[in-house]
Amino acid sequence: MLSARSASRGTRWPHSPRVPLSRSPAGFTGWAHLTEVDPDEEVQGEIHLRLEVLPGARGCRLRCSVLEARDLAPKDRNGASDPFVRVRYNGQTRESSVVKKSCYPRWNETFEFELEEGSTEVLCVEAWDWDLVSRNDFLGKVVVNVQRVRAAEQEEGWFRLQPDQSKNQRAEGNLGSLQLEVRLRDETVLPSSCYQPLVQLLCREVKLGTQGPGQLIPVIEETTSTECRQEVATNLLKLFLGQGLAKEFLDLLFQLELGRTSEANTLFRSNSLASKSMESFLKVAGMRYLHGVLGPIIDRVFEEKKYVELDPSKVEVKDVGCSRLHRPQSEAEVLEQSAQTLRAHLGALLSALCRSVRACPAVLRATFRQLFQRVRERFPGTQHENVPFIAVTSFLCLRFFSPAIMSPKLFHLRDRHADARTSRTLLLLAKAVQNVGNMDTPVARAKEAWMEPLQPTVRQGVAQLKDFITKLVDIGEKEELDLQRTLSLQAPLVKEGPLFIHRTKGKGPLASFSFKKLHFSLTTEALSFAKTPSSKKSIFIKLANVCAAEKVEEKSFGSSHVMQVIYTDDVGQLQTAYLQCKCVNELNQWLSALRKVSINNTGLLGSYHPGVFRGDKWSCCHQKDRTDRGCDKTRSRVTLQEWNDPLDHDLEAQLIYRHLLSVEAMLWEKHRELSRTSETGTVPAGPGKGRFLPAGTLLGGWGAVGTLPAALTAPLPPAPEDPLVALLGVLQDLRVSHSFS
C-alpha cells in the first residue's frame, strides 16, 4: 500500500490507494486529498487459512484452520506485535491463543461452526494485536464467502489482510492535498535469443554510422515524445554500453545533431536524443569520477554553512562582532565576504578538475575526444575556436557538474537535501560553474550583472578549463585501447558506501553495539569490504553464492535499517550476514543492487526468516529449529530502477521493444512516407489494415512465424535495403514470442 503520512498529525492518501491505481493500470497522476489516519485501515500482511465443509450427524460443519500469518504490522514499541485471531460466523465468535512478540505467528488452531441450510452468512477472520492496558489494535481481516467454500468443499491458501472499511469515510479536503505521480510497470523479459534480431539490427546501424543506409535512430528520435525521451535515451545507452558500442552510438548522435545544426551557439542546447543520451552516459559511466572531484567541495559547503549572497536585492544584513560590540554588517561587507567564499569554492573546484585528467574513465575521455573532433570539423575557423570546448563543457559542466552541485542528494553526494542557506550557496556556485562552462560569453555576463565580483575567477577558470579539456581529449588510439583493456579486466562497480557489519558470537547475535563500520563495495562478482575507501579490499561474499537479500525485523536489533544477506560458504552451508544501513533509502538501494546482481543465481531461496535466531528460537516465528523453513517469502525480484543499475541487456532490449511497440503505428506511417518518395518502394499494410508482413520474408528467411521463438536463434542475414521494414518485422516476431511466453 502506498500512503502519504504526516509525522505531526497522522494524515494519509484517502481510503485505499489501490482504488485509483486499479482504475488506472498504467499509474496515477493527480492531486489526492489527505484524510486523518484510521488505525483500522492501516494494515499489512497475509494469513494462511484452511477452510473445509464436513458432513455430520446433525448437518454440515464449517471447519476453519488458522495456520499462520506473515508480515503483520508492528504495533508495539518493540517493533513487533502480540497477535491473536478472532473468527466470527453466524453470531458466534472464537479466539485463538496469543503469540507474543511476533509479526510471523504460527497458531495451527482449528475452529468449527454448525452450518445452517440456506444461510448466506460470511466467515470473518480478524487478526488483532493484544494489549494488556490499552485497547487491542486491529491488524486486518479476511471475509470469506461460505457458499463458495460449500461448493468447493475445501479451500486453502494465503489471504491478504484487508482494512476495516465498515465505518463511514471521513470528509476529504480539509487537511490539504498531495500531488502524486505513481507509475506501475510489469515487464515480461524473454530469453536473450529472442532479442538478438532487435539488438543486432540496432548495433549494425551504429557500427555503420551515418555512412550506412540505416535510418533507424533518427526515426526512433522522431517518433519519441519529449516526455519519454530521457527514458528511451537511457535504455538505448545502456543497451549499447552492454554491447561495447556506447562511444559509437554517441558518435552517431553527435553526427546527426551536427548535421541539422547551422548555428554554433545552439549546438546541444535542446533536449534531443543526443543530449539526453549523453546525460545518461555521464551518470552511468562517470559517477565515481564526479564524486572524486566534487565530493570534498560539496562537503565543505555543507559543513561551513556560511551565509552567501551576491544579489543586492536579496541581501540580509546581519549583526557581527563579539561580546557587547555587535554592530550591523553593511551590505557591501556581506557582498564582499560572499564573493570571497564563492571564489574560494570555485577555485578549489577548478583546481580539483584540472588535476583529474587521468582519473577520468577511459570511455569518457574517448567520447569527449570524438565529440571535440566532430565539432571542430563541423565548425572550423578561428571565429569558432571556442565551439569545440563549449560542446564538451555543455555536457561536463552544464548537464553534469552544475546539476550535481544544485542537488547533491540526487547524485548521492549527500544523504539529505540542503537547508535554505546552503542551497543558495550551491545555486550561486552552480551559476559560476555554468559561466565558466559557457566560456564567459558576454550574453552570460549580461544576464546577471551582480555576478560580476566573480569575473576574475571565472576568466581564470576559463583558461584552466580549456587547458584541462585539451589534455582530456589528448588520448591516442593505443592509450584508449590499453585503458579500456584495463577496465575490462575489472568487475564493474555497482554500489559502494559505509555499512555496519554485525558480528555474531556463540549461539546468537550480540547486542546492537557490536556493529562495526566498514566500507563495502559491490561489483558483479563479489561484495567486498575494507577499513577505508582507499585501503585494500577483502572479498566478503561471492555474488554467485548469494541466496537472498532481505530486510530484518526492527525488533531484532532495535533498528529498522538492517538487512541480511543469506549465502553459502565454501562447504555449501547457509550463512547469514547482518548489515546495517544509515537510512531507509540506503537500505532499499543496497537491497535492490544485491538482488539485481544475483537475480540469475541458481540457489535463490523462496522463503527466509526476517528475525534472528537468538538463544533457542527464531525471534520472528518462535520456531526452535534453526534450520526450519523460513516464515516469510523472499522478494528477489522486488527492486528499484535507477540510472546506476547494473546492466541487464535483456531488460534494456525489452524496454526498447515496449517503447517501439507503443509507437508502431507512427513507424508504419513513417515507412509509408518514405516509400512514397521511392521509385520502387511498395507500401505494406500496417497494423491499422489488420495484417502484417511475414517476418521471415522481411528479414531474409529467418523462418515462418509459426516456428517462433526457435526461429529467432538463427544467425542474422545481411541487412535488407530498408532497415525500417526489418525493424517492423522484428517487432512482429517479438509480439508472437510474448504470446508464447
TrEMBL record:
- Tell me any Pfam family this protein matches: RasGAP
Determine if Zinc is one of this entry's keywords: yes
What protein name does the entry list? Answer: Ras GTPase-activating protein 4B isoform X5
Q: Where is the Ras-GAP domain?
A: 228-438
InterPro entries recorded for this chain? C2_dom, C2_domain_sf, PH-like_dom_sf, PH_domain, Ras_GTPase, RASA4_PH, RasGAP_CS, RasGAP_dom
Record organism: Heterocephalus glaber (Naked mole rat)
Query: Biological process GO terms, please?
Result: cellular response to calcium ion; intracellular signal transduction; negative regulation of Ras protein signal transduction
- Answer yes or no on keyword Zinc-finger: yes
Q: Its Gene Ontology molecular function terms? A: GTPase activator activity; phospholipid binding; zinc ion binding
All copies of domain PH, residue ranges: 492-599
Sequence ranges assigned to domain C2 in this UniProt record: 43-159
Where is region (Disordered) located?
1-21
Which keywords has UniProt assigned to this entry? Calcium, GTPase activation, Metal-binding, Repeat, Zinc, Zinc-finger
| Taxonomy, superkingdom | Eukaryota
SUPFAM superfamilies (alphabetical): C2 domain (Calcium/lipid-binding domain, CaLB) (SSF49562), GTPase activation domain, GAP (SSF48350), PH domain-like (SSF50729)
